[in-house]
Structure formats: C-alpha cells, structure tokens
Amino acid sequence: MTRLPPIDPAQLTDAQRPIYDAIATGPRKGVRGPLAIWLHRPELAQAAQALGRYCRYDSSVPPRLSELTILLMGRHWLAEYEWAAHKPFAIEAGLSIEVIDAIRDGREPTFDREDERLVYRFVRQLHDARQVDQPLYDDLKRTIGEPAIVDLVGIAGYYTLISMTIKVFDVPPPAGIAPELPTSLD
User: Fold this and answer.
1) Which of 15, 47, 69, 83 has a Cα-to-Cα distance from 159 of 20 to 30 A?
2) What are the structural domains, with CATH classification, of the chain?
3) pLDDT by residue (tens digit) across 54-69?
C-alpha cells in the first residue's frame, strides 16, 4: 500500500483541479501512480507532468529507444510500477522480449540493432560511471544524433524522478499485474 494515498477527485483544491483534469484528459488518460502522488503538490505535478508529456510523447527519440531507456530506469531503481506500466509499451514499440527479459533479469542483452545496443550502453555507463566516455558519445551521436541524445538524457532524468517517487511512496504495480523485478539489488 502506498505511503501517500491518491487524492479523491471530489476533494481536489482549486490548485489541484486544473492539473488533474489536464492529466486525466491527456494522452495518459488517467491520474495514477506517481502522478497521483505529485498531485499533493500541484506545482510539482504541473511541472513534472509537462516534462513527462514531452519526454514520452514529443521527444526526438524513437519510441523503441525511449521505452528501452524507461525500462532501464525502472530496472535500475527496481521500480515495479514503472516496469509494469512500460513493458507493454516497449513490446508494442518493437523491443524484443529477449531484450526485455535480459534487462529484467539483470543480464546484458544481446542486441540485433545497433541503436539499442548504444542506448543501453549509454544509459548503463551514465549510471555506473556517472559520465559517458567520448567514444560512446560519438557512436551514439552518429547513430541517433545530438538532439536525440539531449532528449535521451531528459527521458532518463524524468524516469529517475518517476522511479524515485515510486520507491519513496511505495507505489504498487498496477492492479492485476504480478511483480517481475527483484525486490533488492542483492
């Protein structure tokens, strides 16, 4: 059970109502998970949902690579809600089940596509080394372009915020979805 329950839509303040409505009627089609948590702070909810909308729906990163990044963030943080919410989107976007399962299991995937291999290495290196070396940056730049690298960093950052929210407030996976990720890094 989450540490901070969602706000009852009938109890929304004047500051919360327009943000709730914007999220509920937008492409997400509902206020749930971390977005429901952020609604307790409407200013944060407004800014975060706008960033999330850009990262998810308007960035220059193709959906397949965006979903790969999102799954990597969910796995890094062991954020079950994020994993469960985005695994179907990753499959729909064309990410292979073999790649998804390897990420879930903490194994390095075998990639058929060079862009996926480079994005995987980029996100992993960014987390593990807290930097990205020049050869990897140059390879990724040749493959997806610098605008997409900027967006990729934005996606990773936004889904870190999402994952941190999930972990701090114990946001469970969506109803009816069995957990898949380990419960600890051990």
Assistant:
1) 15
2) 9-58 (no CATH), 63-168 (1.20.1290.10)
3) 998 999 999 999 999 9
